[in-house]
Amino acid sequence: MTGPLADARVAADGDRWTLIFVRDLPQPPEQVWPALVDPERLDRWAPFTASRALTETGPATLTMVDGDDRTALPATVRRVEPPHLLEYTWGEDLLRWELAPVEGGTRLTLRHTLADRDMDAMVAAGWHLCADVLARLLAGEPVTAIRGRDAMRHGWAELRDRYAELFA
User: Fold this and answer.
1) What's the domain count of the chain?
2) What is the 3-state secondary structure (H, E, C) of 98-145?
3) What is the end-to-end Cα distance of the chain in Å, rounded?
4) Quick check: is 1 in a domain?
């Protein structure tokens, strides 16, 4: 069982769609922020590796990892406002990470703008698994990223179906 779904929805954004994915974490934004921008930490929970720290605006490369397969995609870091806002392109997508202090920690909101609405449940399922790993990483557990085909062994298909039902 993959547990409860995240607070997630899809909103029209011009001719594109934005997945809005929210997860509360028990750490303050200052402790969550490095996991979003540091390449070594990103490599432990995100679906990609980063060619550099995402702490300054400008070009970067985010490489999707699926077992031994690697797909490098151009990225541009557009906004960096530590420890509350990070925005970058990833291929044709736009990711906007917002960290807001809340009682007991941080509300992490990801706004992932997609060209294809048909991808929303698949992307939500992937970020769900990534957020689970991120939470464990921040709690100090020794973890590795769940990405690519490996996600199938961790309930990705069930999550995809449940998010598709939620977004219908």
Assistant:
1) 1
2) EEEEECCEEEEEEEEEECCHHHHHHHHHHHHHHHHHHHHHHCCCCCCC
3) 22
4) no
Tokens of 122: 């698949």
| Integer angstrom CA distances of residue 116 from 15, 109, 127 | 9, 20, 16
Tell whether 23 is covered by a domain. Answer: yes
Give the residue numbers spanning the domain of 151. 7-167
Which tens digit of pLDDT belongs to each residue from 8-26? 999 998 889 999 999 999 9
Torsion region of 37: left, alpha or beta (phi above 0 gives left; psi -120 to 50 gives alpha): alpha
Neighbouring residues of 89: CB distance < 8 A, sequence distance ≥ 6:
74, 75, 76, 78, 95
Q: Which residue, chain included where needed, has tokens 């960096």?
A: 80
CATH label of the domain that carries residue 109: 3.30.530.20
pLDDT, position 1: 44
